[in-house]
Each structure stands twice: as C-alpha cells, then as structure tokens.
Predict the 3D structure of the following.
Amino acid sequence: MTELIYQTDAYLKEFSATVTSVDAETRAVVLDRSAFYPGGGGQPCDFGTLEVGGKKYLVEKVKKQGDDVLHFLSGSEPLPVPGAASIGTLDWVRRHQLMRTHTAMHILCGTVFRDYGAKVTGGDMDPLKGRMDFEFETMRAELVREIEAAINAEVGKNREIRVKILPREEAFQIPDLIRTKINLLPEGITQVRTVEIVGLDLQADGGTHVANTSEVGVIKVVEYKSKGAINKRIYIEVQ
C-alpha cells in the first residue's frame, strides 16, 4: 500500500520513500509513500525523478493500481531493489500548472452550477488548458462571455481552497457533493476526499489544487462547441 502524500500536501516537491516492490518487465516501482499524482478525474499524472543509491531515474508515468502507486522508470539501467531508500522529486513546473488548471476547472464548474444549475457531463485537462462539458440545451457567445467574466471574478475574490478526507456517510450528507452527471465514486470506498473553494464550490475530488483562487491566474474561454442536444463543451486556457 502506498501512502498518498499528494492528497493532503499538494505543495510537497520532494519526498523520501522506501521501495516496496519492483516489476522488472514493466520497470514499475512501488513506494511505501508518494507525492506523485497517478492521474485520474481528468487530471494527468505527474512526472519527475526517483533517486536511489546515487542513481537518478526519470519517472515517465505514474499509475494507481489497487492500493499501490506504480512509478514507471525510463531507461535500461538496473532497477532499484525492494527495501532501498529513495528520493522522489516532482517536475514542479508541470505539477503547479496542473494544480492551477484543475482549480480553474472547479471554479468553472462551481460558477456554472451556481448560476445556471448545469451539471458536468465530462472533462479533461492538460497543463494550462482544459475542457468541460455541461448539460446546456443552448450556448451562445453572449452566455460564454458572461461565464468568462464570472469565473475571473471568482479568481479575484481570493477564495481559500480546503481539502478534507471524510467518512463516506458524512461526505454524502453534503448537498450536491457529486457535480458530474454520473457518480464516479466506487461503491466500496469508505473515505471521500472533498475539495472546497470556500464560498463557491464543494465537491468530491481526488486531484491536486492550489491553496487560493488568486494563484490560478487569468482564465480565458477560448472556444465552445455543441456536442449534442443537451451537451455543450467549453474550452479554457489559464494564463
């Protein structure tokens, strides 16, 4: 089992860990604790390096598998052995860009839900850009301009962002905790991680975020499309 450091400290750039298992075929290393985000919920995984015994490996992919986080190492040099001490270092530029982008997506989601009652039907992101699909019957340029102005107003309010891990029963007492059209939380999960943009948005989420909306920057709506009768897509960039 890998302790998920990123769930409670998104700003940790470097961490110590012990190698618990190694798959020579896939070059996947499991650590007892990790700050690398393994991807999920539309947010891509982190990249970085893992240093073991003076050797530095590139972490080219990270993936969650059961209770473990797999760190896939590039190259062909001999792999670390179980029990070895290691230092993990994130590609911080990429991580922080994804944190800003993910929070921007939540600002968009929270604002659209508050102002129009539209739920999310899908989404995806890359560093400093993303897209989100909403249940809108119609979308026009005037509406998009209203949304862009509203989400940047929320950025400017310097809203604090709080992360909590709650028992499932307590979490599901929160109204509108799930903002997606389909509940993506597994049935067997006993604890739910919530992300709150204080005064705007509170929902279940597993990704990494900045601590205050002021850290996001300017959000530009760069395009919008109709993806069906009640499915409209908004593309954003973070500057």
Q: What stands out?
A: The first helix runs from residue 92 to 116.
